[in-house]
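Posting for a labmate who doesn't have an account.
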Amino acid sequence: MKHFILFTIICTTALQLVSGQTKRALIFAIGNYPEESGWTEISSLRDDSLIQKALQEQKFQDIKVVQDKDATIGGIKNSLNDLISRSNPGDIVVIHFSSHGEQVEDLNGNKPDGLEESIVSYEAKQPPYGSEPTKEEILKLRDGYFTDDVFGKYVDKLRLKLGNKGDVIIFLDLCYAGTGTRGIAKVRGGKPPLVSPGFYLLKHETTDENKHVLPLPDESNMASYVVIGASRANESDNETFDDTKHNIGPLSYAMSKVFATLDSGMTYRSLFAKIQSVINGKLPQQHPVLSGNGQDRKLFAGSFIVQKPYVLIDKISGNEMTLKGGKFAGLDVGAKVAVYPAGTSSPDGNKPLATGTVIKAEIYNAAVHLDNDPGLKQVALGWVFITEQVFKTEALKVGVFNNIGTITRGRFTSAFSQNEVTGIQKVLKNLPGVKLSNRPDINIARGKGTSIDSIIISSTGAIFDTLTNASKDTAGLKNKIKAYIQYCFLRDLNVNDPEASLEVKLLPVINEKPDTMYTHLNDTSFNVGDKFMIWVNNKSKENLFVNILDMQPNGVINAILPNSSQRISADDLRIPAGTSFTFKNYIITLYPPCGKEIFKVFASVDKIDLEDIANTHGEGKRGNLCPFEMLVKRSYNARSGPGDNISNAEGSSYNLYFDIKPKQ
């Protein structure tokens, strides 16, 4: 696990032990902070007793507890080292923290906001009220906080010790100095970040110079991990009341309630759904968080269960429902959905609580009319599965630019005449998927001093394409507008199939070899002339075929994989389950145009070949097409609009973004 940001957590479950596995737990409970520390008393010791009881009922044989004065920085590190030393391959390990949480100044330069989350140890201190400590004093105080970077290193060591048969589950019932409403409840954090004077006057950015670069861990030999947080990183973790009206951590309380209703088929994701429901019943404004690579694994090292993608409910009232997913997820008007109890791993073979149809759709949300009231008392109690996706594009807004000529140095600058403008607008009005607008997505502009006209992308100013005379070559104009509509459709297409999970990374080439230590891949940028290779990793249980389309900043689409010029056919792109591969004989050199480039990645169990379709603008490859091939081919057809009547494409598709900058 790469240095993960602290999330409040929880775990559990009732499964018979796999032979040779031991269930171990390490519980940290820090509630009675010294008065001089500046940290208030919280109910962590009550959490401790509740968690111990729950784990004992789940047959945990090895439970160690570290409380208050023993939970100093040294005590925490020693306890984690002891846990690692006594653990064996294949063990199930739970780590739980009940304490205050705090944000401290990041010293590694790898946090965008300059802040690092931390656990407030027993010896941690706040600056005296009203004081203005120096930077040296702040750095000294920082030593009492157990940061997420440090915690992450211990967890990585533990995961490596357990191997790929083990599980790590982390519980952190604390907050991260969020700004959410705190009300009258005790808050497990809530202090201002611990930062140096002048911190907020600085611009905190991660750059190539200050990024903390680490080698990529070999996940194949490490235990899976799951983190369930009681609140988001910008929220407080508010204490609640147990059934006897005593203060308790919300995560600990939810765990005790959910453990009473476990079943053998439950996954960590299903567990989280139930925990989320309990916490939201007590604290509606708090948002629990789930993370980690073992979310769809059965509790306590069972086999993985394929979790079908689902959409969360935002609001529901009787037969009307709003979803936290829209057009990007294939939830356009006419899409079909079904409502199931939260925690359902797949709709197959299960009876839905209700079914419905999308009646209104935006980019990130959709309104649904249901055939009956599913009877959900809370939105967290239901998950929505898409039974029929619909992909469409918004009408492309087009304008005609530079309509009025001017006199420059005695010469008349070329411009569209009013008759030419009227003619172009008439062509556009009759083109499906196009809308004339004064605030266009693209502009048609008369070339300055030449007869070459341009189609310009309004948001970037980049030239998508040119043509000799837009007012006369109406057929050419139509084709170029259709091409841009198709580009937008493919750019926004997002299909998620957990059975087709494939990762793609771009590895810079140094001395004709891939730089496998390159890690800052979420903010990738390259310069013109830079070279890289493509690395793919099949993380699913099925053999997968991969295809990649290159979508340039100017809207041009090219085939990357397969690629006949590189002698890479569709048959060569089968990636066996659980393996990775670097295309070392295919070095890609970057050229203009500069801007935001997109590699559109497609992964499918069926063989796919998008090269001919992309290179011939939809004309190539006929006959029986797999779902993705049909989807891309139909996207070139503007007679009825790209995506019309296209639903349920199998496999996954996503965008890999990177910037191309001018050569330094």
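Reply:
Got it, the structure tokens are right above this. The longest helix spans residues 474-492.
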